Each structure stands twice: as C-alpha cells, then as structure tokens.
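Lab notebook: predicted structure, single chain.

Context: the supervisor wants predicted structures on file for every construct in the current expression panel, including those that have not yet been purified. This is the next one on the list. No modifications to the sequence; it matches the entry in the shared construct table.
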Amino acid sequence: MNTITKYTIAIAVSLCSATTVAYAEPADSMAQDVNELKEVVVEGRRVEQIKDGINIRPTKLEKDASFSCWNLLEIMQPPTLKFDPRDKSFKDHFDNPVTYFINREPASKEEVDNLPASLIISVQVLQHPSDPMFQGTASVVNIVAKEYDYGGYTILSAQERFIQKDVFGSVFSKYQRKNWILQFQGTVGYNDVDGSITNNHSVYNFVQTAIPVEIIRNSYSKTLDHKYTFLLGTLRSTLRFGEGERNRFVVTLRGKHDDGPKTLSEGSADYSLTGEHSTTINNNDGKSTVPSIGMSLVFNTADGKYFSIDAGLGGSFNNNEFRYISDFTPEIATYVKEKVFMPSLGFSFSRSVKGNEIYAGLSNSMSRTSADYSGATVDKTHSTLGKNRFYIQYSRSINDKLNFSLITDNGLLYYGSEGFKTRYYYYYDQAAYIQWLPNSKSSASLMGRISNDAPDIAQINSAVRKTDELLEISGNPEISPAITSNIQASYSLYPNSKFNLSATLQWKHVDGLVTTDYMYHDGSVLSRYVNSGSQNLYSLNLFGSLRLLDNKLIVSPGFNVSHAHRGGLSYFDFWTAGASLSANYIPMSGMVLSAMVFSPNPKHIRGYGYCYEHQWNCILSASYKYRNWNFSVRSDPFAKYRHKTLIEKSINHYSRTEELSKMGGRYVEVSVRFQFGYGKKMDMEEDYLGRPEQVTGVL
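Prediction complete. Output recorded below exactly as produced.
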C-alpha cells in the first residue's frame, strides 16, 4: 500500500540565546512555526530502490515520535540492517559496521544522535556505493536532511544511570551561514561502577618436559574504585565552495581527558614442581589525555572528478601507577609516564569514465611512543608503529538490474623498538561484490573475499612480560598472518511498506590461526603466540520487520545459527543458535514504547573440552517527545549480573572463568533532552542536496 510522504518547507525562528550568531533575528521556538507553511505532497512507496541501495522515507508518525535521527533509525528498523540495542549499533547483512553520512558528508554516531528528526527527508542504505563522496565504504547510511540558509540549533542532554551509577551531560550546537557551518559538541561524565568481579581457575600441565609440572592458578579481580570523570570535546568548521558548493574544507579539533578507573586483582598459585604456594596483589590506576587536530580538503566536480587530501596530528599523554605484591618478591611500585605522537596523511581520487567508476586512496599513519618508568629496571623505552594503506574500488553498472564492484585493500605494517629489529608485515583484503535487482521489491547480493590480518603488537613484540612469579608471556616476531577466505550471499525482500525480510548465508575458512602455546623458558613457564591449525564457520542469519496496527507497531524478529570447527592446539567443534525479538509501539503522537529480548546463546564443544556461554537480555524503554523536550527511561530489569562461564581444555591447559559484572547487568537509565534554535531553512526542492534523487538517483 502506498504511503503519503509530506515535504514540509518551513521558515522557523526561535528565542535568541547567548550562543546564537549576531546576524540572525530571534523569533519563536523551532516547534512553533510563525510563517505560513507550504506543503508538497508526493505519492510514493516508503521503500524504493536507488543506485547502490534503497531509499526509505519515514512516516509522519515515526518522525513525530522521534527526537533525533538516531531515535528515528531505531523505530524505523531499516531493511537490510541489523540493530543491536546493547550498544545501539547497526550492521549490514554481511556484518560490516555502518558508516554514517549526512548529505554525503562524513558524520559520527554522536552527530546522527544530535540531528533533529524534524529535519530528516529520507534515509539511504547503500552497499559499496560508487559515489566517491562515500570514500569507498562497504556499508553506508546516508541521511538526507534539510539544512539552514542561516541559523541552526542546540541540543542539551542529561542522563543518569542507576544501580550502575553513572551520569553525563552534553551540549551539541550546529549553526550555518550559507556555505559555512560551525559545529561543537562537549560531554562530561562521571562513572562509579563498583563490584565487578572476575573469578579464574586455571590448570597448566606441561607434558613437554622430562618432569610433568602442574600449576594451579586461581585469581580474583574486581573494580576497586571505578569512580572517574571524563571530558570530551569536538569543534568542527566546514566551508563549502566552488560550483554548486560541491567542494569543502573541514577543520576538526578534538580532545578527551579520562581520570581512569582503579582496579584490584588478587591471585594465588600452587606449583607441583616446588610444592610452594604464592599469593599476589595488583593495583592499577591510570589517567589519559588525548588531543588531536584534523584537516580535510575535498574537490568534487560536476563531471565526476574527485580528489581529497586528509591530514591529522594526534597525541596521547598517559599516566599509570602499578603496584605488585608477591610472596616471592618484595613490593614493586612502577610509575609509567607515556607520550604518544600520531601523525597521519592520506590522498584519494576518483574518475568516472563511460559508466566505469574508479576510486583509489593512499594513506599513512604512524604512532611513536615514548615511555618513562620509575621503580622499574628499564627507565625509558621508545617504539614505532606504522601503517601504510593503498585502496582501489572499481564499480560498474551492467544495466539497471546488475552492479558489481572489485575491491583491493593493501597495507604494510611495521613495528620496531629498543632491542627489537624493525619488522614489516604485508596484509591485504581482496573482494568482489555483485548486486542483482530482480525487481523493484527485492535485491540479492554475493560477496567473495580473501584476506590476511596483520598481527597486533602484543602478538609480535618479543619482549617477555611476567604475569606472576613463574608464568611469562611473549609475542613471536616469526608468526605469519592468518589467511581468511569468506563467501557470503544475501537476499532481501521488501514487497510493501508493511513487511521486509533478509536472509544471509556465510562460509568462512581461516588458515594458519594464531593461538597460544606453552613451554619452559629460563626456569619459568612461557606462553607464546604460534601459528596452528585452521577453522571453518558456516552460518545462517534471518532478520526482518513487520508493521501492524496501522504502522503503530513495528515488530523485528531475528534468528541465527552457526557451526564452527577448529583444529590444532585449540581444537573445538560446536553449534551456536540465537534469536532476538524487538518491538516498537507508538500508542499516541510523540510516545514510543520499546522492548528487545535476546535468547540464551549456548555453545557446546566436543573434543578436548567444552565451553558454555550464557547471556540473556531483556531491554525495555519508553520515551515521550513534547514540543522541544524529550524524556526517556531505559532498563534491563532482570539481569543482575552478566554471567559468562568459559571452560576450555586443550592438551596442556585447562581454564574456567566466571564473570559477574554490573557493567553488563541490571540498570535503570533516565534521560532528558532539550532543543532550541532559530533560522531560515533551505528550500529542499531548489537548494543544496535537497532532493534524494540528487544524491544517488532513483532507479
């Protein structure tokens, strides 16, 4: 059934605040339009196919019930996207994280959450879009929104979480004068999550030696004092210029300060070799400050030529105090003062020739770390981590029904420090993506990918680090990156505005897995990373949504099942099944009642041991929007703790871990948000990026 989408073009003015610019004239609030409204009514489908994806037009009921664009996305449940309420994130049907854009310009999740729903025209869900403005991203949500000719808005937010005890406040302002946009976001928070507990019981039996040795370790840790404050700030200036204001120059300043939590860990170990017993106590207390500046210059011409240059300079200043008490050694107190210098530079360009779209990018990023130690055997250390990346995406539309892309992503990782010769690791990610549109109500896609993942620093750093008196851990510079082969196929059906369904099949093979081996080293036990075995994964994922009660009730079920098998040192073989169900109900204008339920997700391993994981959530929420105010309550009322029990058994290692964490358990969250602003909005039928078809083109 066709829905009616109303394009409302309004000139709105509001009470002037101290933060408003001088050239604007104050009038009334954003919620009260004082000028005569002009409406353009267009008949059309709620979900329509466009180039590289789909375009979704939210209903008036959904927009009236949403305070921000993020609230709107949660209610809409866009087809081909999966929503996880635990961290409020979206992924596509291939499990790629979504990258957000507003009118084809990169946007953070916080910017999307502070974009008023009243400004939204449509939401585009794109896969491997050929438009170079999307920077070769695999999964894109592009929000087409009204903009200001002059003026803007400010949103104030406050949130408090009970039981888990944290509170934060934020301010977000965005003001525009023709082709210049100034944006600021600041957040301050306080956290006090006391009582997170982790219990660990491990047995190591080292049969490689002449005399078998058994070490039984028990450890207990909890958050001793998680009271800390954090401060975030972002200031961005965007200047658009050139023909049609297609080009832009962006300068972004960011800063973060975190007092850091204090943690306590207590442990004990029994050694069959000596018959001795040991107890340890670790205290950790850290702080960090992270500033950065970034600049981006983009040229995007009307004839399809694109060029951009990005430069950034960041830093990190970390202070950490670590105390270690043991039966075998005297108390060790170490104070670490760390400085990290992080420059980056990148170029990208695109050309469009007779339907062939080529996007390429080259970037380099580096991290130079200097650390001073007090109370340790090493006074100073220096290390360098670098990453070079070269990316090419070739896209071609065979006809209106068939599109394909070839992607090659190549990089060089290098790492060096005192006493460790610089080593280089080549990594790659090669993929082919095909999309077929059999009709206007469905789409099918196929992706094949082969890649190797560059190892992280902990895996290749050969320095030996003690975890207690006898157990040490070390990286291995000789390990090779694991090679992953992946084939995924997906089919999505959206026959009308009431129903949509997506199904995804996946096969994944990993060869040369990086796992942990145990051996003796200088009279102690060494845990070392090695390449061992392979792994196969088969999975099926189903998700969709159904609209009932005249679009007031949106139900979104999901189901997944997978089978995994791994050989080598860490053998396992198990089936996993899980399900979820979310519902959003709009009983009246401005009010939304939501519920999301996750079923238990068990894992059973056959072979050397087994693993059992249990995580159950039921998240309930309610929100109400009145004029410029929004009030919401959110809770997971049934999970007192996050229970996670892991039992593993290999040839020489047995471990059981139980985690009781309030961070993943019961909470009640209350928040309030207020919006004010003023100005003249652009005419979306005539001005910059007004019509959705100007962005990608409706098929």
